[in-house]
Amino acid sequence: MNPVEIDDAVSTLAQQPFEAGEFPFEFLRAFGNPETTIKRLRSGSTNQSDVPGAVLQRSNIHIATCPTGEVDATLRALRASPKTMSAKARFILATDGEAFQAEDMTSGETVACAYPQFPDHFGFFLPLAGITTVPQVRESSFDIKATGRLNRLYVQLLTDNPEWRTVERRTDMNHFMARLIFCFFAEDTDIFRSEGLFTSTVEEMSARDASDLHVILSEVFRAMDTKPQDRETANVPRYANRFPYVNGQLFSGSTETPRFSKIARSYLLHIGGLNWRKINPDIFGSMIQAVADDEERGALGMHYTSVPNILKVLNPLFLDDLRGKLDEAGDNGRKLLNLRNRMARIRVFDPACGSGNFLVIAYKEMRAIEAEVNRRRGEPDRRSDIPLTNFRGIELRDFPAEIARLALIIAEYQADVLYRGQQEALAEFLPLDSQNWITCGNALRLDWLSICPPTGTSVKMVANDLFETPLDQAEIDFENTGGETYICGNPPFKGTRKQEEAEKSDLRDIFSPLTSKWKNVDYVGAWLVKAASYNIYCDAPFAFVTTNSLCQGQQVAITWKILLELGFNIRFAHTSFRWSNLAANKAGVTVVVTGVDRSPVGARHIFTDNVARQVDYINPYLTHHEIKVVLPERRPTPPLSAMDYGVYYSKSAGLILSPEEKLSLVKGGFPENLLRRFLGSSEYINGKERYCLWIGDSDLSASLHFREIEERIDSVRRDRTETQDAAVNKLASRPHQFRERKGDDARKIFVPIVSSENREFFPAGLADSSVIPTNKAFYISDGPLWALSIIISKLHLSWIDAVCGRLRTDYSYSNTLGWNTFPLPAGGLSEKNRNDLSQAAAEVLLTRERHFPLTLAELYDPRDMPDDLRRAHEANDEVLERIYIGRRFRNDTERLEKLFDLYTKMTTKKAA
Questions:
Q1: How far apart are CA 238 and CA 219, in angstroms?
Q2: Distance of alpha carbon 650 from its chain centroid, rounded?
Q3: Contact, 271 vs 188, CB < 8 A?
Q4: Which of 588, 589, 593, 597 is nearest to 606 (CA)?
Q5: CA angle 874, 875, 878 (to 5 degrees)
Q6: Is the dihedral of CA 25, 31, 35, 39 positive or negative?
Q7: What helix, strand, coil percent values describe the chain, rounded to 5?
Q8: Going by C-beta distance under 8 Å and a sequence separation of 6 or more, which residues neighbour residue 14?
Q9: Distance (Å, rounded) from C-alpha 403 to C-alpha 912?
Q10: What is the pLDDT of residue 336?
Q11: Angle at the Cα of 166 (from 161 to 172), degrees rounded to 5?
């Protein structure tokens, strides 16, 4: 269940008569517990509570109902219960149907309210549904409630008006929803000068069957686009004449509205019943954009980027500097004035702005600094000098772009109320400014210099403007000539394999003048290079959230190599963290933040787990070593042995067998020595069996006596003949074999290409001649045990984590990057070193054998790794790390410091 569905279920529960015996089960059901779980708890088979009448769900919650007036005592009993502790219950909850109390046993946070109000705190309990939360969501459930109700209305209107579902009308539908959101906000914040004006007009003036509601709304919208002096001539109805003139192009153009059914009218009134004063634009925008997206609607309420994560970008980019100048100014009026004037000219530009989160937070933070400036100068009621038009964005989809502008308008009004007072805010809010500063379009195709010009006071190009702004509008006032520009945002993440043709075309346009390897670039990399191009004409430091893959493997050798050659430096960086704040099952993507500029001087900071470290240099792998790019090497540094890909098997399906097919062939008399296990990363790690035909030229004649073998070989010949690939066509002449005939060594080190990031150690191992590695793995022919010791070490894992790429968040091994570049100790490896490492690796292998038949996946499960195997690996690390520095490394940061230092010396020596 998503948060919107949970809110709906919890609200329904609160409205029903309280039944003490049923409440615990209904509460758990509201948070998505399946009926089988409820049934087991009800029967007592999984309910281990020691509090009479209570229900205890292990690792989740201990719930008790009680007689009237005994909620305090019951909560104390739950808190003191030994079972609460032993079952690791996160929450305790007590209610008598009148009062409601709960406590988070992890954080100590509590909820205490009247029973009917407990749905307002449903965000507190979202972890019960496997959804991680952030404080902003726990503290206010309004935005999720509003999202849910708007979604129900949206879906119902599309059902009632199927013609509005079309691509041609979807923009009109989204614009209609933006108008509604503004009306709901305006009627609850005195902008309409009469509380509840919009909702009461709908309720009083429209028929109960909603047959004329579309006409009522159309007239209201028309009134808000008509100046007061023109209304009599325009024949605005009396009920609509009560609404103020809004302008801002929000209500201009067509006033056509979809028709309402009785159900849709009811939904509209329910939305109006919410208290829209509670709207939080930095949460609401992200959530509401899912309403208009068919693919995202199933995750309603999940689309929220937390303020702390946004500030990881904005604070070091420019906000920390502004706050520092504020502290430095103290009460000096002149310095405070200079700071205020500086902020009035700062441009914040998000070229992938979505619903405007980054722009809204930047605006609110700057308004807070400005308010303090005004307070210290004795001008607390002064009108803000920071124009909304300085917060510019580009968004591909029309509805999020409209919501971004609306969110900024709401943020401006709320800031005015907070810092200047309600009356002052209202006096200047309407009419809205008709200028548009959020552009709808493809940011990689548009000219950023036209949308956010570095000089001058106007924007010369207006692309697909919002709120029906005329496309022939020549200029938009830009009140910040000569000011600073900061580029920020969270561009779309798409790896090379998930990109569509249009996205490939975007990459080609951005990268092809700079590199021929653009097909291998992550989509998000285009924003960095586009920002760099913008910087040719002005100094505009930029900071983006990107997948951490952009700072790994071949992405570094493409995107970052270009940026470094263009003279850019990384000013600050947040190392890998999960971009998942309101996500089911902690789903999310692992990201980094990089702040980039062209200044050769100034402090640089690396943030790890929000702890900053000042350094002299930050490289593209986000460590402090003065190293540019680790380039792939064709051969390893001696004495490391060559590591090769396994066997490529495209157009060879007939040569591959399941265990059952292999067994059938053997039973039929086919020689077992012509069958081998055919393993890639997944098969090797998870203990899956797969086989292949391994037929030499001298074995072919005898093999063809077996009908099934003949048919399989014929199928391979057909597959290779029918393809358009000339190289594969040639292989049709020997269809009894794969493209390569290799990997059948009597002993080899088997290296999986892909391994879970959750594993503490890399699960490489040995294989014999019965195993043929596929090209989903690497192998070292007759590899020495001391080489295996290195491969399975934490030292090597820290290196491949830094310089190799990722498949999603899993390690993706590369022989040219991970193995061939791996730096050995400065003095090399002595014979004793190799013997010690070989013994340590052998102990790891023997320990694995003692746990047969557990698979490598089971052995290296971080939650259940055998203690003796962990000790064997720790001993292996001890031997290797003492060779490098005479002791164990303290952490991965220290490991990388040493390896990058050795790599720099190694490559310098090679160059010399």
A1: 10
A2: 34
A3: no
A4: 593
A5: 85
A6: negative
A7: 50, 15, 40
A8: 115, 116, 117, 118, 119
A9: 58
A10: 96
A11: 75
How far apart (Å, rounded) are the C-alpha atoms in residues 530 and 444?
Answer: 7
Confidence grade of residue 457 (pLDDT, cut at 50, 70, 90) = very low
Within 13 A of 135's CA, how many CA atoms are on the CB side?
Answer: 5
User: 581 by DSSP, 3-state: which?
Assistant: coil
Hey, what amino acid is at 278?
Answer: K
456 CB-side CA count, 13 A: 12
CA distance 87 to 275: 39
Token pair in block for residue 584: 């089911």
| Conformational region of residue 553, where left means phi above 0, alpha means psi within -120 to 50, and beta covers everything else | left
Q: What is the DSSP track for 618-659?
A: --TTSSSS--------SSPPTTSPP-EE-B--TT-GGGEE-H
Residue 302 has pLDDT above 80, yes or no: no
Report the interhelical angle of 142-160 vs 3-15 (nearest 10°).
Answer: 100
Query: In whole angstroms, what separates CA 410 from the centre of its chain?
Result: 26
What value does the mean pLDDT take over residues 237-260? 88
- If DSSP codes are grouped into helix, strand and coil, which group holds residue 487? strand
Among candidate residues 126, 105, 114, the one with its CA nearest the CA of residue 30: 126
| The two structure tokens encoding residue 833 | 């070193």
Cis omega before residue 639 (within 30°)? yes
Residue ranges of the alpha helices (H) in 56-166?
71-80, 82-86, 135-139, 142-160
Distance CA 836, CA 877 (A): 11
Dist CA 798 CA 800 (whole Å): 6
Alpha carbon separation from 186 to 143, 153, 409 (Å, rounded): 16, 19, 11
Query: Residues 19-59: pLDDT tens digits?
Result: 999 999 999 999 988 898 899 899 888 898 999 989 999 98
d(CA 378, CA 56): 58
pLDDT digits (tens, 9 = 90+) for 142-179: 677 777 788 889 889 999 999 998 888 888 888 898 88
| Strand order through the sheet with 91-95 | 55-57, 61-65, 91-95, 99-104, 110-114
**Angle subtended by helix axes 525-534 and 501-511, to nearest 10:** 40
Q: What integer pLDDT is reported at residue 301 of this predicted model?
A: 42
Q: How confident is the model at residue 291 (pLDDT cuts 50, 70, 90)?
A: low
- The H or E element containing residue 893 is helix 892-911
Taking alpha carbons only, the member of 646, 638, 552 closest to residue 822 is 638
Contact between 207 and 229 (Cβ < 8 Å): no
> Rounded to an integer, what distance in angstroms lies between the CA atom of residue 81 and that of residue 74?
10
- Closest listed residue to residue 838, CA positions, set 789, 780, 794, 792: 789
d(CA 394, CA 358): 12
Give the residue carrying structure tokens 């502004």: 322
Please measure the distance between the N-terminal and C-terminal CA atoms of the chain and give it in whole angstroms: 62
Check the CA dihedral 320-324-329-335 and report its sign.
negative
* Helix (H/G/I), strand (E/B), else coil: 721: helix
| Helix/strand/coil for 523 | coil
